[in-house]
Amino acid sequence: MAYVSAVVAFTSPVTPLTSTDTINENDVIGTNVQTFAATDSLLGTVTFSIGSQAPLTPVKFGLSGTNSDTLVTVDTFDFESGVTSYILEIM
Hints:
This protein is mostly beta strands. It has one domain: Immunoglobulin-like. It has strands spanning 3-10, 18-24, 32-35, 50-54, 61-64, 70-73, 85-90. The strands form 2 sheets. Strands 2-1-7-4 form a 4-stranded mixed sheet, with no helix packed on it. A 3-stranded antiparallel sheet has the order 3-6-5, with no helix packed on it. Strand 5 (61-64) and strand 6 (70-73) form a beta hairpin. It is elongated, with a radius of gyration of 14 Å.
């Protein structure tokens, strides 16, 4: 069984959090990869966005949930295509 790794790197807040998640090659579109949580003492709710993805194409990830707090797959993964890891910046 082949796996694709996704690396999530937080650049905000100031203390970065880096994690690695594994996605099964035959996981369906919409698979939950990771859920984020943060608080802002002034604004309360934090809404997340994908700052960057490497490689840029094809787009493999999206955000869902009330505050865009859940990273999900938006495409299928094919180990034989040669791309086996992605780097995402979540802001």
